[in-house]
Predict the structure.
Amino acid sequence: MSENNKKLSREPYKGTRDFYPEDMAFQKWLFAKMREVSESYGYVEYGASPLEPAELYAAKTGEEIVNEQTYTFEDRGGRKVTLRPEMTPTVARMIAARRRELPFPLRWYSIPNVFRYEQPQKGRLREHYQLNVDLFGVKGIEADIEIISVAYNIMKALGAKDENFEIRINNRKLLLALNKHLGITGDKYQEFSKLLDKKDKMESGEFEKKLKDILGGGSAFLLGLLSTRDLESFIGGLPKDLQEHESIKEIEEVLLGVKFNNPKINVKFSPTLMRGFDYYTGIVFEVFDTSGENKRSLFGGGRYDELLAIFDEEEVPAVGFGMGDVTIRDFLETHKLLPKLESSTKVSLCLMEGVAPDFVNNTAKTIREGGINVSTDWSQKKIGDQIKSADKAKIPYIIVIGDDEVKTNTFILKNLATGKEEKNGLPELIEFIKARN
Ligand code: HAM
């Protein structure tokens, strides 16, 4: 075959997904849970275009994402445009634009698709959907506690058991204070924090070596400290003047607060938790699968009080998280929590040969007006095949229409999962289906 008439690929663009109706049904289910829990805490939904001026990401997103992971191009007017790799700069921009009018504290959420030029692998694609839940205008630790509680309760609403996942928290302020104490500042601190962020992806020997390269003599002390398993021994290992640092108090308060709100929560301090973005300023957290199946974090977030300053606006305290649909789906699959979803169409009308279309259309109309989604199989295939199609499309009920139905105006509603049949007039059958849904 010549180049010109080479057949087109049926695959979607690398690292992206097509959403067939069953995938869309899952996505709708997932988003509904996310919305339900977020709204129950008073969060309201917002949205924005996936196209942003490239400069939005230059200041605070972090080099790796900006230089290696964004889709950036020049538009026909010569502007540099980026497909959003995350939502936080966008929401910060929106708030900066109306800071004076908006009623703080603001509780906002969104479920945007975001784009990152990554090597596709388990848990990582080039386009994913990400729930963003953010609280603006609260300085106090109550906001961090609330945000972690929302994250926890979404996991619970998705059917996760407490033992299936754990939440790890740390405080950027603590790392900063500790590094200042050790004289690790400026570029060295940046290098150190990037290394820490990648620690779990490295062999321990490699991490030790790289830490030594950056810190020289101070590395042994830090290594010891970072390998402590709980907050108490970590504090014990700190230099005296840092043991009462405000960052430690914040961690203690968050641990206590989230446990008070959610007594069974599996939450712990993790001195090596960093998170990739430069804009975090305080508490950071990540949620992990405890099964060992899904190694990378499921999702995470933290406090970013200074981000609005990039718009030359006064700082607005902010805390939030981003929860991706890919890692969550993997988690639900691992723990056998994927829901069994049926079609949004509840009834398929299967037609015997020769039935008058007007009668069929009137029947469908009555069912539809009764609030039930119904489709009509006009294929003229054999009844058995029409039923098979309905079943394959996950439509739970069928009604076969033939001469008897036309004569008596009585119908047999068949539940395809159980095989059970219900014979009655349409109003009664409509009520029957409604009672079940
Ligand atoms: P992030 O950790 O970069 O944070 O992304 C949040 C979550 O999105 C990840 O934990 C993961 O679930 C998902 N995710 C990220 N990249 C990918 C990818 N390539 N493929 C699939 N899933 C992915 C943020 O984006 C912050 N803006 C979150 C935030 C909101 N912080 C405060 N508010």
Observations:
- The pocket of histidyl-adenosine monophosphate is lined by residues 86, 88, 116, 118, 124-125, 128, 130, 132, 134, 276, 297-301, 320-324, 326-327 (CB under 6 Å).
- The two ends are 54 Å apart (CA to CA).
- Residues 33 and 403 are 44 Å apart (CA to CA).
- The first strand starts at residue 44 and ends at 45.
